[in-house]
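Exercise: predict the fold of this chain.
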Amino acid sequence: MTEANAPLIRTDIPHSARIWNYWMGGKDYYEIDRVAGDAGKEVDPEITTMAVQSRQFLIRAVSYLTGEIGIRQFLDIGTGLPTMQNTHEVAQSIAPESKIVYVDNDPLVLTHARALLTSTTPEGVTTYIDSDYHFPEQIITSARNVLNFNQPIGVMFMGVLGHAASYEELRRIVRTVLDAVPSGSYLVMWDGTDDSEAYVTLCKEYTNTGGAPYVPRPQAEIRAVFDGLELVEPGFTSLTQWRAPDAEVGEIRPISAYCAVARKP
């Protein structure tokens, strides 16, 4: 990518991926993102817990699929800004030959992708597809150049489907991707839910800043995305409660973000 055709990165309006990075304790954000992030924490103090726990869920889910199930291919759609313990780092630390395809159409994410690609293992593959998840057929076509669609794939939608234009569109996106992968593949997904008034308010206020709208949905709607799949224990649950370490059991409580890992029969 040359400077002439490099994507425009706006620093005058808050950016959801950069704000999320700030909430997670990362360093890739601008002052406007910090201001928006701090304002968000005032509205919903639990948002930083959600951000941190979302990464803990990713680590546990990818470790489970790679280490216990033997999945060696991941399609991480709407990946966001790379921080610590990204999908490829977790998978390839267990199975160096793992192949990971990240998908995003965000200019900032794609800029960071160039640096991220240098950290893959020699045996494995880590690559990015520049695509919007509203066009899953395009994603599948591009991913076939890297992944073997005759072998199981871990499909990941990590806290991004609230940006879908509608619930019907959300279901279509997930269904299209899952229809393309073989039996034995897995869906790993979490998303924010509307059972916290503070979180719903935070999302509305973010939209008012000019950011891409994010719509928290009822738990039942998120749970329905897994219909027809075989849920892995402990099933559909809060981010904080999916296979939490024994030391945390009893100390953790649900938050307004729900998740599951499920197998395609």
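Check your answer against the key: Residues 26 and 83 are 6 Å apart (CA to CA).
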